[in-house]
Design goal:
Blueprint lengths: L9 E8 L2 E6 L3 H10 L4 H8 L5 E5 L4 E4 L4 E5 L5 E7 L5 H9 L1
Antiparallel strand pairs: 1-4, 1-6, 2-3, 2-5
Helix pairs in contact: 1-2
């Protein structure tokens, strides 16, 4: 499934073991509309509606940390077991985007 972190928070994800693959796209008005329209459908509906060329694939290896800015739409795939530490945070650098996501 694809997600947006609650209240427009940013996400940090530190991988200790295993491998995680992130599929991400920025929170443009077009992408957010597609996300909310296909939210109750399968994840494939979002990809097909969005177009796979607009989704970035990031492979995270042990010891690496990924920070996703507020509002980014993402999915995580882990083929094998993995151990990760994850957290959310708010900051003053993207208040407009945070408010936009909250109002959406």
């Amino acid at each position: 499934d694809f997600f947006i972190e609650p209240y427009g928070t940013s996400l940090w994800y530190h991988l200790c073991s295993g491998q995680s693959i992130f599929y991400c796209c920025p929170p443009t008005p077009e992408n957010l509309n597609i996300y909310y329209q296909t939210k109750s459908s399968s994840p494939k509906s979002f990809i097909h509606a969005l177009g796979s060329n607009k989704v970035s694939r990031i492979i995270l290896m042990p010891g690496e940390t990924l920070i996703l800015p507020c509002g980014w739409i993402y999915a995580i795939f882990a083929q094998d077991d993995c151990l990760a530490f994850v957290g959310n945070f708010l900051h003053g650098l993207a208040i407009q985007t945070q408010l936009f996501i909250t109002d959406f």
